[in-house]
## 1
Amino acid sequence: MTTEPKNNPPLGRVIVITSGKGGVGKTTSAAAISAGLAKQGFRTVVIDFDVGLRNLDMIMGCERRVVFDFINVIQGDAKLKQALIKDKRLDTLSILPTSQTRDKDALTKEGVEQILKELKAEFDYIVCDSPAGIERGAQMAMYFADEAVVVTNPEVSSVRDSDRVLGLLSSQTKRAETSGAEPIKAQVLLTRYDQARVDIGEMMTVDDVLEILAVPLLGVIPESKAILRASNVGTPVVLDGPSAAAQAYEDAVSRLTGSDVEMRIVGERRPGLFQRLFGRAS
Amino acid sequence: MNLFSFVRKQRPPQSAQTAKDRLQILLAHERSGGGAGKADYLPMLQRDIVAAIRKYVPIEEKDVDVRMERGEQMSSLEINIELPQAASPKAG
Ligand SMILES: Nc1ncnc2c1ncn2[C@@H]1O[C@H](COP(=O)(O)OP(=O)(O)OP(=O)(O)O)[C@@H](O)[C@H]1O
Ligand SMILES: [Mg+2]
């Protein structure tokens, strides 16, 4: 199913991965989605907007190769091309790391706009990993977006914050401020979903969450052990061998690129002999 | 020693060791760099390289590409300089 858009003019679509609440899986999702897009042949770059708390580099496994960062480019200390790190596994994938030290004010709207403009001329997808919160970093990550993936856990504070962020997406962004522009296409990515807990009424269902947020669903990512393994070794989960989470991310990526993939909720694994004999342990 | 440590020994959790190794290498560099997490001399080094080469060949700042790979024992610095098509020394 590999498409080869490599010689076509770049699509130049900016996708923000955002959530409001911290620790819900934005960076995990940004890594998996960008690798998934690149795997399908799309020229893809993933940008870390979490100034001061660089982490995307570790999740992508390129932390030893960071020379220049996003802020170096904004401040003119390095050219964009020099700051981009080419992924060693997929030649269609690049990473733009964030600064570990510089202060957040260095992230100017003009600077971000200029960088995105240059990237749009070369890449099909520009995936922006937003920091948590709704402060400057998060605002900058979403401001120029064409699409938004709102990462949400089936849990009250996460859903509440997602609702808040959906409000910001439809009011505090370039598309919202430009009259006549199409609004940002926002979709929910439900992550850390645990079917077993849903089944016994301990966790809200997909429908519960969608009923509250009232935006389309991009996908459902199960709670999965494969995620920790992938982050341990610095490999986006879709490149780290087959797993339920990888499958779910691949499906979500296909939906992002316009394929009509049936929504399925993949479980972590079948219960092993031990569990069948002694009942569910976790 | 309990049952669980026995089970663990049978199948070592290798990815956890990888995580620890990666962190140790990264944090050693970050701490020694005053928390900067990268060599801050690189932009200056790059500027100096461009200036030195420009004495002989007309190149642009963007023609110089500095790459680094940090390792446990040593780090390597890779500098690629793209010379213009008809690059010929000014003198000689
Ligand atoms: N589907 C999942 N199954 C199990 N663990 C997960 C899943 N998704 C994310 N995690 C874990 O949740 C933690 C937070 O993930 P991640 O760093 O991606 O969140 P984040 O939203 O980027 O956080 P922050 O707001 O701090 O930037 C990590 O330890 C990650 O391994
Ligand atoms: Mg993050």
## 2
Amino acid sequence: MKTRDIIRYSFISIERARSRTALMLLAVAIAVTSVILLIGLGEAARRYVTREFASLGTNLVFVLPGKSETTGGAMSASFGGTTRPITIADAQALTRHPSVSRVAPMVIGAASVNRAGLERESVVQGTTAEMLPLREWQMYKGSFLPTGNWQHASPVCVIGRKIESELFGPESSVGQFLRIGESRFRVIGVLDHAPSTFGMTVDESIIVPVASAMRLFNTDSIFRIMIESNHPDSIPAISTFVTNTLKARHHGEDDATVITQDAVHETFNTIFNALTLTVAGIAAISLAVAGVLIMNVMLVSVSQRTGEVGLLKALGASPAQIVWLFLTESAMLSLFGALIGVGVGLTACWLVSTYYPILDMFPPVWAVGAGVLVAFITGLVFGILPARQAAALDPIASLAKH
Amino acid sequence: MLIKLDRIQRIFQVGSEQVHALQDINLTIEKGEYLSLMGPSGSGKSTLLNLLGLLDRPTSGSYLFDVRDTTTLDDSEQAHIRNSRIGFVFQFFHLIQRLTAFENVELPLMLRGVPASKRRQQVHAALDGMGLTNRFDHRPDQLSGGQRQRVAIARATVTAPDLILADEPTGNLDRKSGNEMIEILEQLNSEGMTLIVVTHDAAIGKRAKRQLKMVDGRIVEDIRTQATT
Ligand SMILES: Nc1ncnc2c1ncn2[C@@H]1O[C@H](COP(=O)(O)OP(=O)(O)O)[C@@H](O)[C@H]1O
Ligand SMILES: [Mg+2]
């Protein structure tokens, strides 16, 4: 029997048994749609995080006070309490490595900021002049923090554009004073808009010298240090250098956490891989359910078409041909169902991405291909039992059943 | 010699009982013969016909089809002989309802792997020969009983088989259509196909040149007459 004829014969029986076909197409289409939506969602989340990391700048090493027990828990150090302070002098010591191009210490806190009776809460970041090139920020006007002695707590600040418009209105802010907590600061510059990273908005930030921030928040420790390397390959060397330097300065105690961007990124990647696998597992279950449905519908179909099978045998169909006819039918149903599912799934992804651009929900090509392939294989596998049952029918008994 | 049955037994096991549907059948049929098979209900006519058509296997004995011992053939080899050498005409037509007349007749050629263009000619010829030229695209439920039976005959003969087996082909037709049917089958026989017809109708049975009578799984009469058509 020619392959074309097998397909044509199966197609006719699919086409002329509408409600059965519709039911099976629906089951497979729903399964494949959910595969595409779930994987698309996972990918959207992964891309979101990747984008956030990319906007942080590359070639970075972070240093946090306190030691986390395992590398996997690196993130927890930033939430845990400070054990031993990292001082400005510690941060300065970290500049002494040939591959380190910039070091920017950071202290972060929230404070109330007021000027001429206008008041608001704002995030205040203490840092150094290095932060500007390191984050690739641009000045809107004025200048950024002065270079020079990090220990010097000069009363100057740089503000975001939203802070400026809220506190100064149409007036120019540069050269004017504002109050952070109890202290007076002179505005020396305004930062231009920049994409926010992890919820930190430049437009609503106030930047002061690191020593000023430590005084303001009454802390003896730097919150974190960002170190930029002049080459990605030097990152491991810098990590080691940082660990050793801090250990030497802290009387031999290894009490700071060094995080490379790669490691954090990798942690997120691991999380997202696990997420994708889980999601794929859930999707696989829905495909298996669709497969069981295909099997049952095909079994019913075989028993309804007993007479037809008997006839085909009388006309000289071999058992193998009968198997192929029924297998082709279930495989075609699952393939068509899968294609419908891909259409619906991609359309839904497109709609979501259009209306919520932050969720660019396009599943990778492999996921779409795998979804279709798995659906097709499911149809084949679950079609085997009904097909073999049909092939095993006794032709005389089948013909007698009318 | 087309068929040679030698000491054929067919025993069905029904629960603890054995039903001897065929007992010690010895039968030789030459190419081009026309046989009728008569006998009371349950005498084994259908069982014999199914066996001749390779839809069933004997419990013991040997069956030579065109000098090949069929009992040694596997299922797909038997299927191949059914497809190329044997045509069945059933009492209940057994047309596939969702297929058109053309598609039903096409089936045996399709199973054999004949290319579509060649199939087309053969199916046309077979349906034209049955006077169904205008019924190609009709489904079985759009045809009369006589027309359905003619589609079934077209399907049985489209492969130009050596042997046509008809189990009560007129059983579901009125007298007029029934006679028409027998005439068509006899026409095919006169063209050289071996024809075996199982029937309850003595008038139809008498038309055959060789008349077999079965009782209790045995052939009890084997009469050769001159044709009286
Ligand atoms: N599949 C079967 N299982 C059990 N008994 C059967 C089977 N087929 C036929 N028989 C028995 O074999 C005998 C012959 O049946 P059959 O050939 O159909 O008779 P006929 O066609 O002459 O009416 C009957 O007694 C019938 O009950
Ligand atoms: Mg019978």
